[in-house]
Specification:
Elements (H helix, E strand, L loop, with lengths): L5 E5 L7 H12 L6 E5 L5 H13 L5 H19 L5 H18 L6 H9 L1 H16 L4 E3 L19 H17 L3 E5 L2 E3 L5 E3 L5 H12 L3 E6 L4 E2 L11 E2 L1 E3 H9 L10 H6 L4 E5 L8 E4 L9 E15 L7 H13 L6 E4 L3 E7 L2 H11 L3 E15 L3 H8 L2 E8 L3 E8 L7
Parallel strand pairs: 1-2, 1-7, 2-4, 3-4, 7-11, 10-12
Antiparallel strand pairs: 5-6, 8-9, 11-12, 13-15, 13-16, 14-15, 16-18, 17-18
Length: about 425
């Protein structure tokens, strides 16, 4: 029988500064007797900054070194606030920046997605090196593990698929002895590797998924996602007033929420947990004493209205040029094209001669899509849209959310309503 293990995931907001790292250490120090695997994201906005580096490098911009320096200053600022000069962590972190320097010294020899994974994955390696070193410094025995040694994937760069049997074997043989030795284990979210040791990533915000993978492989007792909110809320408190904390959620409801864009949990997180009935808790790293949200199998599906707002959406209207009906072979071709370009469809509607979809605003991918479809279809692109999804909706909630907006596309199901909306422009009267 496996010993009981918990898996904790800390996001970038929890370790964005020195005080945040000390706070995480405090949470872990109170749980020294537990077997814990800790999954950590990149610090603060590091992933965004490394994406800036990547784009500058790929587009041959002159300021690529300046963008690297932004990332470097942030991480060495963390180290300066946590360690004495000359500590080993300085060399460990510097070596990772050398890897970035090596990438940008040469002309791009691979496609964008491949280089992206090699570059952006460094963010998680940096943060985990710093946090693991700090925990050991303050007397919490911690083993740093490279996720690329345990998370095995295919070669679909930027959105790799897990090779489950290989991953289970590597997790068991690598992590179990370290846990048995009484150490915490720290590893990176978001990243993995192929059989030939090429770095891959699991999709943006994929650290939650990493934690779920490890929970599954270790038969964890529970998984906890530590957030800067008290738990799962009925709406984003930065955008809406009077939001409520949901104390309990079913796996089903959590999957529906993440599918429709709720950012509190990565969409792929729930399935591995559901497969083994592993409960998921969402708790506050700001105040760990607050009871968070429990997500599990034994919860009734009775909830207040839950609102998910996604901004920066694009509405695509695709019509046949010869006014022929959009029949099965048209749909199959269109959906296949979206899938090949990895453009996720958030909402869709078809009529006799047209197909309308709401997708994230991805200018480069949408341009490629338009170039492909223009041969046979007329494609209209409308930007600056918002996608509003309401689970367990009520009419008064609908009215309040659409006030001052034009509804361009709407779909109602028994428990869910989705609307693509745009703000009504203010007309200056002369």
């Amino acid at each position: 029988m496996k010993k009981q293990t918990n898996v904790f995931k800390f996001g970038g907001a929890s370790i964005k500064d020195v005080d945040g790292i000390k706070n995480v250490a405090g949470i872990l120090a109170s749980r020294k007797e537990e077997r814990i695997v800790i999954v950590i994201s990149a610090s603060g906005k590091t992933t965004n900054h490394l994406e800036d580096v990547m784009n500058a490098y790929f587009n041959k911009q002159a300021d690529v070194r300046e963008k690297i320096e932004v990332v470097r200053r942030h991480h060495f600022g963390l180290i300066d606030g946590l360690f004495e000069p000359g500590d080993e962590v300085y060399a460990l972190v510097n070596d990772l920046f050398v890897e970035i320097d090596w990438i940008v010294e040469e002309e791009p020899k691979h496609d964008y997605d491949y280089i992206y994974d090699q570059m952006v994955s460094v963010g998680e390696l940096l943060s985990t090196r710093i946090v693991a070193s700090y925990l050991n410094k303050i007397g919490i025995p911690t083993a740093w593990v490279d996720a690329r040694d345990i998370i095995r994937t295919d070669a679909t760069y930027r959105e790799s698929q897990i090779l489950w049997e290989d991953t289970e074997r590597l997790v068991e043989t690598t992590l179990t002895p370290l846990l048995d030795a009484g150490k915490f284990v720290i590893t990176q979210g978001f990243i993995g590797s192929t059989d030939d040791n090429q770095t891959t990533t699991l999709g943006r915000e994929g650290s939650d998924f990493t934690a779920a993978i490890l929970s599954y492989c270790l038969d964890a007792v529970k998984m906890i996602i530590w957030k800067d909110v008290e738990g799962v809320l009925t709406a984003d408190p930065r955008l809406f007033k009077n939001v409520q904390k949901l104390s309990r959620l079913s796996y089903k409801e959590a999957i529906e929420m993440t599918y429709y864009g709720a950012s509190v949990i990565h969409p792929k997180t729930i399935k591995p947990l559901q497969n083994k009935n592993i409960p998921l808790y969402v708790q506050s790293f700001i105040d760990p004493t607050i009871e968070g949200t429990y997500i599990g199998p034994d919860v009734d599906d009775h909830y207040p209205p839950i609102v998910v707002l996604e901004r920066n959406q694009t509405l695509l209207h695709i019509a046949t040029r010869d006014f022929s009906f959009v029949v099965e072979h048209h749909m199959a071709y269109l959906l296949k094209t979206f899938a090949e370009l990895r453009i996720f469809i958030n909402m869709m509607r078809n009529t006799a001669i047209s197909f309308t979809v709401c997708v994230p605003d991805l200018p480069e991918k949408i341009e490629k899509l338009k170039a492909i479809l223009d041969k046979e279809y007329s494609v209209t692109v409308e930007n600056d849209m918002e996608l509003i999804t309401i689970r367990h909706y009520q009419e008064e909630v609908l009215k309040s959310l659409t006030k001052g907006k034009i509804v361009l596309l709407e779909e109602r199901l028994r428990n869910t309503v989705q609307m693509v909306v745009k703000n009504i422009p203010l007309i200056e009267r002369i």
